[in-house]
Write a structure and sequence with these properties.
Length: 211
Amino acid sequence: MPYPYNIELPTLVVRAHEQAERLGFPMMPQGRPIGKSAPTTTITPADGALLRALVAGYPAGRICEIGTGAGVSTAWLISGMLPNSSLLSCEINPELAGAAKSFFQEFQFVEIRAGDWSQALNAEEPFDLLFFDANIKEVLIDSDNWSRIASLVRIGGKIIMDDLTPLELWPSEWKDNIDYKREFCLCNPQIAGVEVRTTKNTVSLISTRIY
Ligand SMILES: C[S@@+](CC[C@H](N)C(=O)[O-])C[C@H]1O[C@@H](n2cnc3c(N)ncnc32)[C@H](O)[C@@H]1O
């Protein structure tokens, strides 16, 4: 195989990208431009492949996604899920949630739930794996919310976050910023977390809840 390896997109992901283009979610395969504003994008192929690899470790897993968007990351998750697993994906925007419901209707094990995750997931048992992809910074600024986020997964369960900028690529004007995703995942006694470089411009965080 020639280097670098190309990530082959599963058919469902290709179809989800077509739907995402129609809904105004472009893909930027190498991540969004650093330090510049950009539209909300779909997950990159590298981060999607990471989700697929991780979700494939949970036979009969209870999987959750917060922030369905146009459904590209949902498609990656489905592409890796094992038999008897289920996926609950929550989206606050009713139009996006409605579009995703129609798009994924053939998958009986997938529920798209419209609403704000902080209300919509209240009655749920802890999940095995959570992809948190919705404005989490605002929630994590207050560390009193950390244990609530951690308890969305069971002990041993995983929380994945994507779309971080490698620290060495931070523009100088960011030098005093606090990165709340990193704080939660890397400086949190409930969490064993690690950064994973997924492209030259992007980092994801993989965290396991340890108590
Ligand atoms: C970055 S986009 C998701 C992209 C998608 N996960 C993907 O990678 O293809 C973030 C999504 O989170 C949704 N969102 C924002 N706040 C939310 C909340 N409180 N509860 C549920 N969804 C929320 C937004 O409407 C948006 O569609």
